[in-house]
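Explain my protein.
***
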Amino acid sequence: MPTKKPSAAVIARAKKIRVLLCDADGTLTDGRVWLLSMPDGTAQEIKGFNAHDGAGMTMARAVGLRTGVITGRDSAAMARRAREMGMEFVYQKRAEKIPVLEEILRIAAVTDAEVAYIGDDMPDIPVMKRAGLAIAVANAAPEVKRVAHYITSRAGGAGGVREAIELILKAQGKWLEAIAKAKA
């Protein structure tokens, strides 16, 4: 799926990745948060996730990458989607992402260089500055794009995460194995 050719430096970074982390709103979704008014005066949150992104996350796991999400919001929809994708690391309602990154590094026994992070907005920048492979989705804020090693051609919630996963798996020579292990 990557429509633009990544640089040799990006490929070299992608070859080292063992843990793939991303933001939720604006990265796994298009950034919109839908609130459905209920008769009792409460509101239910609705999020839309891209099936290709989800399939990519599942394929990444199938070939040995550890996956996760770090997000500032708390969402039952995100928790469910993370379970469906088999994400190992699910951290919600985390205003500061670096302490979470530190915890994941310890648990996974990896270095910064072995982590890829996909983001779209300001809270993602500190993690992206540390990640071995920092990826911004196409609709990311300009400041996020400036710290990224790679910018997807697809937007968040529209296949940007899948594009990043394909880049990593192809760089590692695992793409054909991932295709063979793909499940509906």
